[in-house]
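FIELD: query
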Amino acid sequence: MSDFKKDLKPNPKTIYNSSEPPFFDNEIDNEMLTTTQAAALLSISPQALLNRVSRGQVPYFKFGRWNRYRRGDLKELLFAHPRGGSNGS
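FIELD: result
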Protein backbone atom coordinates (compact mmCIF):
# COMPACT_ATOMS: atom_id res chain seq x y z
CA MET A 1 0.00 0.00 0.00
CA SER A 2 1.38 3.40 -0.92
CA ASP A 3 2.00 6.08 1.70
CA PHE A 4 -0.73 8.17 0.15
CA LYS A 5 -3.36 5.47 0.74
CA LYS A 6 -2.10 4.88 4.28
CA ASP A 7 -2.71 8.56 5.04
CA LEU A 8 -6.30 8.27 3.84
CA LYS A 9 -7.05 5.20 5.95
CA PRO A 10 -8.55 6.25 9.33
CA ASN A 11 -6.71 5.16 12.43
CA PRO A 12 -9.28 4.06 15.05
CA LYS A 13 -6.91 4.82 17.92
CA THR A 14 -6.64 8.48 16.97
CA ILE A 15 -10.37 8.76 16.30
CA TYR A 16 -11.65 7.30 19.57
CA ASN A 17 -8.84 8.22 21.97
CA SER A 18 -8.84 11.89 21.09
CA SER A 19 -9.29 14.41 23.90
CA GLU A 20 -11.76 16.34 21.73
CA PRO A 21 -15.38 15.20 21.47
CA PRO A 22 -16.32 13.33 18.32
CA PHE A 23 -17.12 15.49 15.31
CA PHE A 24 -20.75 14.42 15.17
CA ASP A 25 -21.47 15.75 18.70
CA ASN A 26 -21.24 19.28 17.30
CA GLU A 27 -23.76 18.43 14.63
CA ILE A 28 -26.15 17.01 17.23
CA ASP A 29 -25.76 20.09 19.46
CA ASN A 30 -26.60 22.35 16.52
CA GLU A 31 -29.74 20.39 15.65
CA MET A 32 -32.81 22.61 15.69
CA LEU A 33 -35.84 21.34 17.61
CA THR A 34 -39.50 22.28 17.52
CA THR A 35 -41.26 23.54 20.64
CA THR A 36 -42.74 20.08 21.29
CA GLN A 37 -39.37 18.35 20.85
CA ALA A 38 -37.57 20.90 23.04
CA ALA A 39 -40.19 20.59 25.77
CA ALA A 40 -39.82 16.80 25.71
CA LEU A 41 -36.03 17.12 26.02
CA LEU A 42 -36.46 19.41 29.04
CA SER A 43 -39.25 17.22 30.50
CA ILE A 44 -41.69 20.11 30.68
CA SER A 45 -44.91 20.89 28.83
CA PRO A 46 -44.78 22.92 25.60
CA GLN A 47 -46.73 25.71 27.32
CA ALA A 48 -44.21 25.84 30.19
CA LEU A 49 -41.43 26.14 27.60
CA LEU A 50 -43.23 28.99 25.84
CA ASN A 51 -43.70 30.74 29.19
CA ARG A 52 -39.94 30.50 29.85
CA VAL A 53 -39.21 31.77 26.35
CA SER A 54 -41.45 34.83 26.90
CA ARG A 55 -39.57 35.54 30.18
CA GLY A 56 -36.23 35.34 28.34
CA GLN A 57 -35.07 32.23 30.21
CA VAL A 58 -34.66 30.03 27.12
CA PRO A 59 -32.80 31.06 23.95
CA TYR A 60 -34.62 30.45 20.69
CA PHE A 61 -34.61 31.30 16.99
CA LYS A 62 -37.60 32.56 15.08
CA PHE A 63 -38.29 31.05 11.64
CA GLY A 64 -41.36 32.77 10.29
CA ARG A 65 -43.94 32.20 12.99
CA TRP A 66 -42.24 29.12 14.42
CA ASN A 67 -39.77 28.97 17.29
CA ARG A 68 -36.79 26.68 17.01
CA TYR A 69 -34.39 25.71 19.77
CA ARG A 70 -30.79 24.56 19.46
CA ARG A 71 -30.25 21.23 21.24
CA GLY A 72 -26.87 22.39 22.60
CA ASP A 73 -28.44 25.46 24.21
CA LEU A 74 -31.06 23.30 25.90
CA LYS A 75 -28.42 20.88 27.17
CA GLU A 76 -26.54 23.82 28.68
CA LEU A 77 -29.73 24.87 30.49
CA LEU A 78 -30.18 21.38 31.88
CA PHE A 79 -26.66 21.20 33.30
CA ALA A 80 -26.23 24.85 34.31
CA HIS A 81 -27.64 24.46 37.83
CA PRO A 82 -27.26 20.90 39.12
CA ARG A 83 -29.19 20.01 42.24
CA GLY A 84 -28.63 17.35 44.85
CA GLY A 85 -25.54 15.22 44.73
CA SER A 86 -24.44 14.65 48.31
CA ASN A 87 -26.31 12.70 50.94
CA GLY A 88 -26.05 15.48 53.46
CA SER A 89 -22.68 14.34 54.79
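FIELD: remark
The CA atoms of residues 34 and 64 lie 13 Å apart.
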